[in-house]
Amino acid sequence: VQLVESGGGLVQPGGSLRLSCAASGFPFNFYDMNWYRHTPGKAREFVATIGSRSLYTNYADSVKGRFTISRDDGLNRVYLQMTRLKSEDTGVYYCRRAGTSLWGQGTQVTVSS
User: Fold this and answer.
1) pLDDT tops 90 at residue 41
2) 3 Cβ neighbours under 8 A, 6+ residues apart
3) Which of 34, 81, 87, 108 maximizes the CB count within 10 A of its CB?
């Protein structure tokens, strides 16, 4: 049972990145999925969530209108499309199986010129 994130990297302010989280070992389509991030000097914070079968989405105010969460139940993946990135979006991004202690190892996103 695991979650593996990918897609992080260095991007200039105003740029875009798409993060991916590959799930394995559990019935992915049954679970809501979250993205969190740990930014420098702050506690880990919620970024976005998507319901099972994509029934709903919800976002932190700080990313609303810039980030989009989606999922592909056939591929057991959840995505975070990030646009209009800001320096304050820099951090380690984690996916989580909602309501459980299952987290990925994280992927680093750095927004800098």
Assistant:
1) no
2) 21, 22, 23, 95, 96, 97, 102, 103, 104
3) 34
